Amino acid sequence: MSVNTVRFAVGVLGVFGWSLTISSATQVGLSDKVLVFPYETDFSFVAMIPQKEMGLRAFTLCMRVATELPEERQIILFAYRTADYDELNVWREQDGRISFYMSGDGTFFHLPPLTTFRTSLCLTWESRTGLTAFWVEGKRSTYQVYKPGHSIRPKGTVLLGQDPDKHLGGLEAVQSFVGEITDLNMWDFVLSRSMIQAWHYGHKVPKGNIFDWGNMEYELNGNVMVVDDD
Amino acid sequence: MSVNTVRFAVGVLGVFGWSLTISSATQVGLSDKVLVFPYETDFSFVAMIPQKEMGLRAFTLCMRVATELPEERQIILFAYRTADYDELNVWREQDGRISFYMSGDGTFFHLPPLTTFRTSLCLTWESRTGLTAFWVEGKRSTYQVYKPGHSIRPKGTVLLGQDPDKHLGGLEAVQSFVGEITDLNMWDFVLSRSMIQAWHYGHKVPKGNIFDWGNMEYELNGNVMVVDDD
Amino acid sequence: MSVNTVRFAVGVLGVFGWSLTISSATQVGLSDKVLVFPYETDFSFVAMIPQKEMGLRAFTLCMRVATELPEERQIILFAYRTADYDELNVWREQDGRISFYMSGDGTFFHLPPLTTFRTSLCLTWESRTGLTAFWVEGKRSTYQVYKPGHSIRPKGTVLLGQDPDKHLGGLEAVQSFVGEITDLNMWDFVLSRSMIQAWHYGHKVPKGNIFDWGNMEYELNGNVMVVDDD
Prior knowledge:
Oligomer: homotrimer
Largest sheet of chain A: 9 strands, antiparallel
Distance between the termini of chain A: 14 Å
Number of strands of chain A: 17
Radius of gyration of chain A: 16 Å
CATH class of chain A: Mainly Beta
Strand order of the largest sheet of chain A: 1-2-16-4-14-6-7-8-9
Largest interface: A-B, 17 and 16 residues
CATH topology of chain A: Jelly Rolls
Helix content of chain A: under 10%
Strand content of chain A: 35-45%
């Protein structure tokens, strides 16, 4: 069951100056819960506090996501930003492709469209080779080579629902996420095919050491609902 | 097996003034039966008499539906109307979306298209949160928040096959249903995911306390056929 | 496990005069490996050395292939060329069809599109009848009759990744392969349906007597990566 520890979060998200430090409180644990972003806004988001610093040379990011947004609408799916850089962004682009950006130009994948039903989506990247791929319902996309040698910087902020364009905000409704996200997990290494498939089918896998949905520390802002997963 | 009690229905459907009070007779029970609406008409429909009044603050509506109608054709799938309001309407819109209306503006979902094969379709709504979703073949769509706090009014009439636009009729052929409907059930609460999936797979679930296909009281009007489900 | 025998290949590929004789070294064995062609180039390819001469009056060619390339982009999937002829080419055409050419005009098939996920693709042809078909995920396309009585000439060169338009090169980036190829096998006879399906599902089948992925002799040129299949 989810633990509903609530404590004040003043100053926790130093990257953003505005409402976060005023209105939000940290909660813990999202087991069997879904985040519902019901409307298009420029103020609804969930800040997620990682269990360890996100200076990364490899990662696996997984989530289950559903949206009703029309196909030609840009959608932010995951945003990790430090003061000066978009460190790790995942988007659905206007042309329907899913993209992955680290500090500059991104890389683009043709995947089955996101729909009103949940898609299980993982992303893996490893700095040594630059090999990166998305995994949809446990099936790997074609590998692409993206920024070999790069490192993701630590001490930033992870948001779901909005893309912060700059240090002190810059949220845009037309990029916001509308729909549902659940079961987000992140590891600081590349999971094997069998592990990703196990995660997809809801079997037991090693808990995310950066984000673990069941023990997630998070802060709700604006109109985001935490709903039983049913 | 279905019970074929027939009794006269004069005056039962007080909302409509016209042919209902003259031609139809109430029948009971549709176990293993399918309603076939073979042609486009402005006079064929089935009135369904609920087991309890439909003053509702939550519901689950399920049915199996198949149609050959072209994609750009508007189709009424379920209509519950009181004297002044469309209390609960389900449509397939001209743009292919499935919509749900209560007393005014509706909410729209992108679902897989209805086809010549049967689609199992459920709709859940709960007033407290406004959370609503369609369930297709047991899979839930993205939640939408629709009219939290609203109540559906009692003492109206439920029709399949036509949309009554006003108190005394106003049926339109171009909105009529053509195809098959079976296994319609309705509950005055939100069924759990596992119950909806059980219903989808034809397993045993609690009988609908508003509508129970096996014990349905209904009145056929115009060209509607009751056919063995084979 | 793959055997990584490396020996010099000077002069092995006599058909082409250019960099092959200078830069490449033959390697052996690709068990559990994938060839990743990460970028569009006019210089990245893999030359594959057959286990026996390719004077053929029948064959089965199988591979698993994934690509992110847009649908309207021509793609070379397999090229076997002798000095004067394209002996056996497989393409995805600009109109999305998959084609098969031997020494002149080709034959064209409407198959499911190649995607970012792996497609298992086989091609069978037999000179006596001319019957040819593609097999996608173990399912056979409609037969076509193509060049009955024809023979494929020996002593050519097989390339993956590029189409050599003439004796001394003529590679074009806009025809190059970008994506992944794995598990390529070729036999000098037509495999039965059950054998092709067994191959599709990864079951044991007779090893390819022309190409056997696990014992493949190959030479990497340009930017081609050999990656663990995970």
